[in-house]
TrEMBL record:
This is Ubiquinol oxidase. Keywords: Electron transport, Iron, Membrane, Metal-binding, Oxidoreductase, Respiratory chain, Transmembrane, Transmembrane helix, Transport. It comes from Camelina sativa (False flax). The gene is LOC104722813. CDD domains: AOX (cd01053). The chain crosses the membrane at residues 133-154, 196-215.
């Protein structure tokens, strides 16, 4: 009888010891700062087990490094919406096969259209570089006009009120406009045919982008990403082929004023992947001008890629002012978030 009592007491002690850590657990927020604290706590716990499980510890360490890299490039979410956590990762992994097929179809159509336009430009402007750049910059700024037009329409209907999108897209159009002014100063618009072709392609492109953006913002943003990616590659090839010659040529006045002026708010605004005041170009010659234009196109690509995830775009300046926004209560209602006109109409009816 005494032995049985001692056995029961031992089992109870072990049960108490096992259950004790569970009592001390507290819910953890999925904010970036708490995730970092939790990550450090887990890292220290794994270090204690390294001698016992060397292989497992090595694998865990590699996984932790990957998480840190992914977090550093994670797009900001809108005020009032929690950052993506494990639940959203699980839900995203269970995306239907039909939706995946739709995304592939959209991207396939975009790539086909972009390649078709590139072949036309290659044929018409094989030996006329500045004229090609003029046409390209005239076309490249059109999507941002289209995005803002549809966003203003949604805002009027009370469907989609996102000040950050309007700010960033206007800043992008402002950047592309200065690219265009630079090409004009270099003589890219000297031929009537070039102006006629660029303006008519831009007009068609505007209405096409408005239609795409109404039906599928994701497809419209991806198409713009394809255009900006081509622009980056075009300027990169030009720099490699003519770099030494460009270093001996003066920079246009408009480029010096835009990149080195005192008011660079809009210059920082379209670069959503970096904090404001972290990029300040130095313009000494024409090579520096095209180098910065190429880098601008890379920033446009990053912004267009971020836009393809609903609600992931934030103004760089708005991120800094998050605390002030929260105090003022300027939070967009969840019901105002919609993707495309079909989703907006559905939510306006059901809400």
């Amino acid at each position: 009888m005494a032995a049985a009592t001692m056995a029961i007491s031992g089992i109870s002690s072990r049960m108490l010891a096992i259950s004790q850590p569970l009592v001390t657990l507290r819910p953890v927020s999925y904010s970036s700062s708490h995730r970092l604290l939790c990550h450090r706590h887990l890292s220290s716990s794994r270090l204690l087990l390294r001698n016992k499980h060397r292989v497992q510890a090595t694998i865990l360490k590699e996984d932790e490094e990957k998480v840190v890299v992914e977090e550093s490039f994670k797009a900001e979410t809108f005020t009032g919406k929690e950052p993506l956590g494990e639940e959203s990762n699980t839900s995203s992994s269970s995306t239907s096969a039909f939706e995946s097929w739709i995304i592939k179809l959209e991207q396939g159509v975009n790539v086909f259209l972009t390649d078709s336009v590139i072949k036309i430009l290659d044929t018409l402007y094989r030996d006329r570089t500045y004229a090609r750049f003029f046409v390209l910059e005239t076309i490249a700024r059109v999507p941002y006009f289209a995005f803002m037009s549809v966003l203003h329409m949604y805002e009027t209907f009370g469907w989609w009120r996102r000040a950050d999108y309007l700010k960033v897209h206007f800043a992008e159009s402002w950047n592309e406009m200065h690219h265009l002014l630079i090409m004009e100063e270099l003589g890219g618009n000297s031929w009537w045919f070039d102006r006629f072709l660029a303006q008519h392609i831009a007009t068609f492109y505007y209405f096409m982008t408005v239609f795409l953006y109404i039906i599928s913002p994701r497809m419209a943003y991806h198409f713009s990403e394809c255009v900006e990616s081509h622009a980056f590659e075009t300027y990169d090839k030009f720099l490699k082929a003519s770099g030494e010659e460009l270093k001996n040529m003066p920079a246009p006045d408009i480029a010096v004023k835009y990149y080195t002026g005192s008011d660079l708010y809009l210059f920082d605004e379209f670069q959503t992947s970096r904090a404001p005041n972290t990029r300040r170009p130095v313009i000494e010659n024409l090579y520096d001008v095209f180098l910065n234009i190429r880098d601008d196109e890379a920033e446009h690509c990053k912004t267009m890629k971020a836009c393809q995830t609903l609600g992931s775009l934030r103004s760089p300046h708005s991120i800094i002012e998050d605390d002030a926004e929260e105090e003022s209560g300027c939070v967009v209602p969840e019901g105002a978030h919609c993707e495309g006109i079909v989703d907006c109409i559905k939510k306006s009816i059901t809400s």
